Amino acid sequence: MRGSFLQKSEGVDITFLDETYGTIVALKHENGVNNSLCVI
Amino acid sequence: MPNRKKKTTTQLGKQPPRYRFFLNPYEDMRFTRCPQCDNKMHQRKLPLVIHVDPMQVLSLNKTCRYCPHCDLLIAHQDDVEHFLASFFTEEKPEVVGNDYLVLGTLDRPAWKRGTQQQMTLQEMLEALHDFKEVVTFKLTGGWVRDERKLPAKK
After folding, report:
1. What distance lies between CA B85 and its chain's CA centroid?
2. Minimum Cα–Cα distance from A1: chain B residue
3. Using an 8 Å Cβ cutoff, are B67 and B39 in contact?
4. Do A34 and B116 touch (CB under 8 A)?
5. In 10 A of CB B138, how many CB atoms?
6. Which residues of chain B are at the A interface, by a Cβ-Cβ cutoff of 8 Å?
7. DSSP code for B147
8. Which residues of A touch B87 (CB under 8 A)?
9. Along the 154 residues of chain B, how does pLDDT read in single tens digits?
10. Which band of pLDDT confidence, cut at 50, 70 and 90, is reported for residue A2?
């Protein structure tokens, strides 16, 4: 199952986000650069 | 004699499992006290790893409630879903409303590394701590008899 999960998830988008005092800042890598996606 | 099958769970993360996890579905219950031992809950900010169907993985550094005595970590479902809806409405509207699963936690340095440099899925799984156990708490309501106050039977 784990193997199939990994295989199936080849093109997975991974996003790292931070919640700061109720504000959520999203960071994403694009071309090796961290971009702030949005502030919620 | 019934044939008892051993419960098998697939461990996804390569790190040792941590925390007993409860995704709190009750909007009117904030669990300031532990539902298990009734001690005051602490707060712990840590990166939760959330898989969203079909191909999204989020690592959200989020403040959760934590009881050190019971090793119980509680995240409020409405908070998590509000975040997911807000985030994906902006980024990928087609994903909004899809199933999601909180897989486990990352160590802070691994999360920090992920915000600074590219991290593959394999690297994330290497750093992932599954939950020891996923638990649920249900409300039991209604009037109950206080056995202590009953007169002793003769």
Report:
1. 18
2. B10
3. yes
4. yes
5. 8
6. 10, 12, 45, 47, 55-63, 83, 86-87, 90-91, 111, 114-122, 124-125
7. G
8. 17, 24, 26, 37-38, 40
9. 445 555 567 888 999 999 999 999 999 999 999 999 999 999 999 999 999 998 889 899 999 999 999 999 999 999 999 888 888 888 889 999 999 999 999 999 998 888 777 788 888 999 999 999 999 998 777 777 777 777 766 5
10. very low
Query: Which ipTM was obtained for this model?
Result: 0.81
Radius of gyration of chain A measured on its C-alpha atoms: 14
- Spell out the residues 6+ positions from residue B131 whose beta carbon is closer than 8 angstroms to its own: B17, B18, B19, B20, B21, B73, B102, B104, B105
Is there a contact between B115 and A16 if contact means CB atoms under 8 Å apart? yes
Domain ranges of chain B: 15-137
Tell me the two tokens of residue B145. 């008899």
Chain B residue with Cα closest to A11:
B55
Distance (Å) from the alpha carbon of B74 to chain A's nearest alpha carbon = 16
